[in-house]
Automatic annotation (TrEMBL), chain A:
Co-factor requirement: pyridoxal 5'-phosphate
Subunit field text: Homodimer.
GO biological process: L-alanine catabolic process
Protein name in the entry: alanine transaminase
Domain of life of the native organism: Eukaryota
GO molecular function terms attached to this record: L-alanine:2-oxoglutarate aminotransferase activity; pyridoxal phosphate binding
UniProtKB/TrEMBL annotation, chain B:
Matching PANTHER family: ALANINE AMINOTRANSFERASE, ALANINE AMINOTRANSFERASE 1
Domain Aminotransferase class I/classII large residue range list: 102-484
Top EC class for this record: transferase
Pfam families named among the record's database cross-references: Aminotran_1_2 (PF00155)
Cofactor: pyridoxal 5'-phosphate
Lineage of the organism: Eukaryota, Metazoa, Chordata, Craniata, Vertebrata
Protein family according to the UniProt entry: Belongs to the class-I pyridoxal-phosphate-dependent aminotransferase family. Alanine aminotransferase subfamily.
Keywords, comma-separated and alphabetical: Aminotransferase, Pyridoxal phosphate, Transferase
Underlying gene: gpt
Official protein name in the record: alanine transaminase
Entry's Gene Ontology BP terms: L-alanine catabolic process
SUPFAM superfamilies: PLP-dependent transferases
GO molecular function: L-alanine:2-oxoglutarate aminotransferase activity; pyridoxal phosphate binding
Subunit structure: Homodimer.
InterPro entries referenced in this protein's UniProt entry, alphabetically: ALAT1/2-like, Aminotransferase_I/II_large, PyrdxlP-dep_Trfase, PyrdxlP-dep_Trfase_major, PyrdxlP-dep_Trfase_small
Length: 528, 498
């Protein structure tokens, strides 16, 4: 080939040469498209026109990535929706996607004030419109003044708009009872996921027994396992205690760590509080114990606190890792490396689509921080509407401002409805024989344990499916309800769960829970 | 070595020893350390510092910092397209659909976008690949652009700016170790996203040089040289082309694109076509040819087989909406199993920002003749593009009047990349400081004039040659001042070091 190529530009000999040698693989390629077995090489072993990029020659770490929240069950749900819309007969009239914490899709209304400011920032002509309240206008003016050319269309600093980071810092100080926060330690992100992946990326190094290991809870939010798989880091599982409402046991952390130290280099501990998918709220004592554990074992702490406003159960309260860290005194607060993540997607606002978020880095090495700043500069900046929204979340209308009362009204309505639905979900699920559900103390999900009859487990295994995947798939086909099987989050061997959001409106949620009940009874009967 | 700075304080040292940081420069991801991104590098950090110093009243030889380092149109005063922003406002706050001052076509676009969103809200997650109706509009846009070559919406992936798509595609390609490690061919000069992504992914960067003498065109013989050399130590699998060029501003001819496609086909390379400047073509006789269109004109022998990915964005062209991070990629002839893996991979980041998706929709589906916003849209678009064409010419002309600077025509995109002569003495002083000579030059220009450019070394260049990248985006009057300041500086600099 190397001999032929220099005359390629003339296109005299090569044309005929190509059409001859290439006609063979062409037919095999169209066969591939029809899903027939692949022939990767032509005769004479010439590699000529087999795909450059195939499943066998792609990045092997990407292949290991799994993300159950949008996995096969959701793909099937989308198919079912299409079939319904095409008039196909199903045993249900609509698909209910209770698989993902997508509040607005479930009918939750956006906060009026936030959307007014975003509209003003998008189309500043509206600043002359007298129907918009003054506080919305002044927020919009402040955001626009921080943007190059007063436009959300400009790139911002890669770390995020200065004034937004200042507002975030002041919010954290208020939240944590005055513990100081430096805006330079705030990085705005494209949703919390972006920040989490970036931090994990910084941590990964070594090979074999020195390869970075990261401790994550089981059950976990599968972003963590997906990111670790892609980065080729070692996932270290520690199990939450289902019997004690999904709390963290230090002895279990110790067990997981000690075992992992034999084959990798554990360097970070991830905690999701309030929990996803498990909905628990960790106690102050537990957080203190975890911080002490991380300090003793030299682990960097990653605190996923995106549900910090989603606490419902009486007696429960959100304690930020940062606040507890600083209450433990300088021995800890001067040394323990902590990164905390927040987002615009959850809490009372539920603005997932804007992909807003921030992370705060505490006690990070200055040189590493410079590397982080450099790394995020490559993706230029987080989306500006998401940055603006993050600003509004940390700096909402204040008492005395025209939008304050309505803001409080809307926020309270959403949070009380969520609290009510958390309780309803737990109660109804616990009336079902073969299902037991911990209190939904916070976040947006219930993660009940389900009993699956032996015969069903057998049938699932024959199909090569996880038993709870089999269960959820059957529920989807029969009821139109889309849940995520516990196996997508990880669970103690031999136990089965599903994750269900509590987001549907109360009336719809009641119907949904009753359908789950009916399905479970039928399923149990069928397989017993 | 981490603890040396505390050695004077014995007590503190002891504590720090037991509590040395988990994450230090020596124990962090080594591939991240290798990442460099000159467009936002040290010179820009210094520019931001200078701005702060100015605002604090410090005396400088200039009254403002002009950031000509980055293609950031709105920051340079370019106005957004009214129609786009009206629709975005309507989507953000649907109450405005009752406002009679908004034109009907803006409202109908907004309604269509909202109807495609869960709960009719931009606050919902969308499909990870992007909103269906937006991908359909993108497919129709591509078909119109390419004279009817069919486009399947299933082959469209919406992205968080073009960068996101490029990094994702490179990520899929990387495998092997040592001599089998994936190599990716990129132009030199290049847009440093490519080198940064390849460094982070641990892939092998294969440099092919653009021909400055022939207005930064691509030579197949140079591609061949680079490929042959690379084959000795890695597994070259992809060829990246930026057209119109960044930082070099050239527009590749149809013939050149055809040659490149044939080269990729013969050498079994996946083609990545960065076409984010597709509407930014200024020079007479130049025209944008999409890789896809040329590929399909070459017949099924090529169009059924060559794997091509094309990238577009909302950040450039006449709209310049960088902050919204909108974009798409079209994948052509991709293996079905790989495509399924791609879909899975993008699902982890849930979805691209919805306002950016909405904006992408408006870019590919702007007001049509007869619609109320059409005339104003055309007026605004034309004004921006003609101003850019004028500034492209102005930049080339003025730069070429400076002795020691020579500038190729700015045929497209948003940048000039002139070659500069740096005197031996200056080169020596730079080397003594451990700086690249053109970094030394640009840093000096920044300190003396407030103009922020990016040195050619940040993009790569033939050894012994020096360049800088300057955007053509400032308003004409400001650009004229800027060019004259560059001229003055260059003359002074040359004199000082000769």
């Amino acid at each position: 080939m190397a001999v032929v190529l220099p005359c390629v530009r003339g296109a005299i000999i090569p044309q005929s040469f190509q059409s001859q040698t290439l006609s063979q693989p062409l037919s095999s390629l169209s066969a591939t498209r029809r899903g027939l077995p692949k022939e990767k090489m032509s005769e004479n072993g010439v590699l000529s026109r087999a795909k450059v990029l195939t499943i066998d020659t792609m990045n092997p770490t990407v292949k290991k990535v799994e993300y159950a929240v949008r996995g096969p069950i959701v793909l099937r749900a989308v198919e079912l929706e299409r079939e319904l819309s095409e008039g196909m007969k199903k045993p249900f009239s609509e698909v209910i996607k209770a698989n993902i914490g997508d509040a607005h899709a479930m009918g939750q209304q956006p906060i009026t004030f936030f959307r007014q400011v975003l509209a003003l920032c998008s189309y500043p002509e509206l600043l002359n419109d007298s129907t918009f309240p003054e506080d919305a206008k002044s927020r919009a003016r402040r955001i626009l003044q921080s943007c190059g050319g007063n436009s959300m269309g400009s790139y911002t600093a890669s770390q995020g708009i200065d004034s937004v980071r200042q507002d975030v810092a002041r919010y954290i100080e208020r939240r944590d009872g005055g513990v100081p926060c430096d805006p330079d330690d705030i990085y705005l992100t494209t949703g919390a996921s972006d920040g989490i992946v970036t931090m994990l990326k910084l941590l990964v190094c070594g090979e074999g027994a020195t390869r970075t290991g990261v401790m994550i809870s089981i059950p976990q939010y599968p972003l963590y396992s997906a990111a670790l798989a892609e980065l080729g880091a070692v996932q270290i599982n520690y199990y939450l205690n289902e019997e004690k409402c999904w709390s963290m046991d230090i002895s279990e952390l110790q067990r997981a760590l000690d075992e992992a130290r034999r084959h990798c280099n554990p360097r970070a501990l991830c905690v999701i509080n309030p929990g996803n998918p498990t909905g628990q709220v960790q106690s102050r004592q537990c957080i203190e114990d975890v911080i002490r554990f991380a300090a003793n074992e030299r682990l960097l702490l990653m605190a996923d606190e995106v549900y910090q406003d989603n606490v419902y159960a009486e007696g429960c309260q959100f304690h930020s890792f940062k606040k507890v860290l600083f209450e433990m005194g300088p021995e800890y607060s001067d040394t323990v490396e902590l990164v905390s993540f927040h987002s615009t997607s959850k809490c009372y606002m539920g603005e997932c689509g804007f992909r807003g978020g921030y992370m705060e880095i505490i006690n990070m090495d200055d040189e590493v921080k410079a590397q982080l700043t450099k790394l995020v500069s490559v993706r230029l900046c987080p989306p500006v509407p998401g940055q603006a929204l993050m600003d509004l979340v940390v700096n909402p209308p204040q008492p005395g401002e025209p939008s304050h009362d309505n803001f409080i009204k809307e926020r309270t309505a959403t949070l009380s409805a969520l609290a009510e639905k958390a309780k309803l979900t737990e109660q109804v699920l616990n009336t079902i024989q073969g299902i037991s559900c911990n209190p939904v103390q916070g976040a947006m999900y219930s993660f009940p344990r389900i009993t699956i009859p032996e015969k069903a487990i057998q049938e699932a295994m024959d199909k090569g499916q996880e038993p709870d995947m089999f269960y959820c798939m059957k529920m989807l086909e029969e009821t139109g309800i889309c849940l995520v099987p516990g196996s997508g989050f990880g669970q103690t061997d031999g136990t089965y769960h599903f994750r269900m959001t509590i987001l549907p409106p109360t009336d719809k949620l009641t119907i949904l829970l009753n359908k789950v009940k009916e399905f479970h009874q039928k399923f149990t009967q069928q397989y017993s």
